[in-house]
Amino acid sequence: MMLNSEETTRAIEVMGEMFPNATTSLTKTDPYHFMLSVILSAQTTDKAVNLVTPALFERYKTPVDLANASQAEVESYIKTIGLYRNKARFLIKCSQELVERFNGVVPKTRKELMSLSGVGRKTADVVLAECFGIPAFAVDTHVSRVAKRLGMVPADSDVLTIEKILMQKVPQDLWIKGHHRMIFWGRYQCMARNPKCSSCPLLDICPEGRSRV
Ligand code: SF4
């Protein structure tokens, strides 16, 4: 049984009661540097990203600085995080494109953001939401797992389908908060390996939880 719109919204409200301060764990900066942080956060923790970005952003203050940077030097600032070679390439390329096509200013549409190197749909959604307050429901690994376990979306849904269904079921003013709450829920309550089902306030509506306890 799938959760309907009302139940999905209620579940996200319950998550908000447990995690009222759920928000991005990445250090908030200006849109340009925040976008770079989101690119760096792919398949690594926000904590690891926050450790490397102060020195990186001090060295490269503007898109022009990074557009002219050497790959090796950028790598030296981010080598403690996963996929650093690819990410260094993305940071430079993305900055070059930003300078060439957007006058160095981070665009405010998903389409334009996704035209930049290293910026996929999730990164674009996070930038729109966090930097410009534009409603988006970014789907990462936690959001995806939690939505499937709770039956908010079909178990075989891909990321785009999950995003579309959540945006249909949840009122727009809850999209950004819902994204953060589901991430916190996935990190601290409904973890990939050992979800805390027996003490979960959503157990009565959760098909996965009921099959586990
Ligand atoms: Fe996750 Fe278990 Fe809670 Fe369901 S009951 S949301 S699987 S922790």
TrEMBL record:
This is Endonuclease III. It holds the Pfam family EndIII_4Fe-2S. DNA repair enzyme that has both DNA N-glycosylase activity and AP-lyase activity. The DNA N-glycosylase activity releases various damaged pyrimidines from DNA by cleaving the N-glycosidic bond, leaving an AP (apurinic/apyrimidinic) site. The AP-lyase activity cleaves the phosphodiester bond 3' to the AP site by a beta-elimination, leaving a 3'-terminal unsaturated sugar and a product with a terminal 5'-phosphate. Its cofactor is [4Fe-4S] cluster. It comes from Ligilactobacillus animalis. Belongs to the Nth/MutY family. Residues 40-188 form the HhH-GPD domain. Keywords: 4Fe-4S, DNA damage, DNA repair, DNA-binding, Endonuclease, Glycosidase, Hydrolase, Iron, Iron-sulfur, Lyase, Metal-binding, Nuclease. Binds 1 [4Fe-4S] cluster. One of its GO terms (molecular function) is endonuclease activity. It comes from the Bacteria. [4Fe-4S] cluster binds at residues 190, 197, 200, 206.
